[in-house]
Hints:
Layout lengths: L6 E5 L6 H11 L3 E4 L2 E2 L14 E2 L2 H9 L3 E7 L3 E6 H9 L3 E5 L2 H10 L4 E6 L3 H11 L4 H16 L6 E4 L3 H11 L9
Parallel strand pairs: 1-7, 1-8, 2-7, 3-4, 8-9
Antiparallel strand pairs: 3-6, 5-6
Helix pairs in contact: 1-7
Amino acid sequence: xxxxxxxxxxxxxxxxxxxxxxxxxxxxxxxxxxxxxxxxxxxxxxxxxxxxxxxxxxxxxxxxxxxxxxxxxxxxxxxxxxxxxxxxxxxxxxxxxxxxxxxxxxxxxxxxxxxxxxxxxxxxxxxxxxxxxxxxxxxxxxxxxxxxxxxxxxxxxxxxxxxxxxxxxxxxxxxxxxxxxxxxxxxxxxx
Length: 191
């Protein structure tokens, strides 16, 4: 069996449960190091700056782009920008940590170019109808934003073959165990 990569990229369509899965892993698998993305979008209820995202303004984001500080960055849904700071990922990998990057499709494509040893995992919904239900059930977007996200989701779902592995998010605990195992860690080492 080959050695597991130190960096794993988790991507998938909007509302598939990437954040939910990541939070579950944070709670139950503290040995995983999370790369916290920067974003220009406002925080949602319950999100914590520095834990869920680094919430920064557009000017600071532009400055980081100019400094080539991002491993990846993208404008998502045509509105807000998200990015992964290269220095934090490189430092964690240098320390021998297993790093998980939860990012969008555009970002995953950039990481493939800039971090060739990374593993790419696509998180898929059980069905498109399930994805629609999750998006509506969140209640965090208005109708226009939901429609924009669903258009983006169709494009993102078509990119599944670009990934090394697909995990279907039909059960959060099972999906977490599968991801932890793919990262080369023991899924039985619950916190």
